[in-house]
What does this fold into?
Amino acid sequence: MPKFTADTLRAFADQLLQTGGLAPDEAALVAASLVDANLRGHDSHGMMRIPFYLEATRKGDVVAGAPFSILKESASVLAADGHWGFGQTQARRLTQRLIEKARSGGAVIGTLIHSGHVGRLGEYCELAAAAGLVSFVMVNTHGHARRVAPPGGKAPRLGTNPLAFGAPAPGGPVVLDFGTSATAEGKVRVKRIAGELCPEGWLLDAEGHATRDPNSLYANPPGSIRPMGGDQAYKGFGLGLMVEILAGAISGGVCIRETPINPNGNCLFMLLVDPAAVGGAEHFAGEVAGLVEFVRQCPRIDPAQEILLPGDPERRTLAERLEHGIPLDAGNWQELVRLAERVGVAVPAVG
It folds into this structure.
């Protein structure tokens, strides 16, 4: 696989995004978010998204430089409209406002409707943790992009509906970020572009049969991604259903339906809590530190294998890729090269 430094990819992404009409400051923000996802091993939310983002701007489904409007606000609630702006821009605006509210009021709920794809949810949990706050974030697909069938069903009825939790902790925040499906749709898309088969257990075809072919998800009729949970898939599907309700219905947005009524994007639900307003900041810090240490010291089945907590794999991947470069598979890299040639952006040399 070709490898690139983070700086190289940020500059490349920035230039590509500006050809789609993004102003330099917004292009830099979105580029940084995408490369940050690659750095942490979440390639499905990284550079490979750029061709899809630019196609969405060309069609008018996503709007560069869109305003951020507050629909309702109180001491503990903020509901916002992103006007189909770039999700990274609008979700960061929401998060920054909610951090201020949580610091002053102790806890706050925020929602965002009419937003483009907001990217890696763990990014917003990390922002909150850096401010000393505990977070809970989730999104649905704004009534679009059905991907997951209920257990026993063969037609998709939900999006992949990810959620994330974050808490400040010694050595880096504990951040649990996952989809309620067996895999993220973006990971299937990565495999499709790369011309590779998916792992066993990810997909069902349109008849409900297991398949490894990523093209089956996008066929007519479409296949589906299995719910998270394997033999306990009803739990994963149920969790995804609750995300749909919290992100789509409570926000004033749109829940999944047979025929979408708006472009593909995200409705977002976020809860931030300041530990200082509840049990006390020092108590919280001490309990979390003790818990983290207690878990890490668990006797191991294999002494050579470490006990990892949520957030550890991302930090390790970050360190490795900062030192050795970010790999991009040949298929996805060629998509970026073709896009760059089409819009007149210089392609960086492969490392």
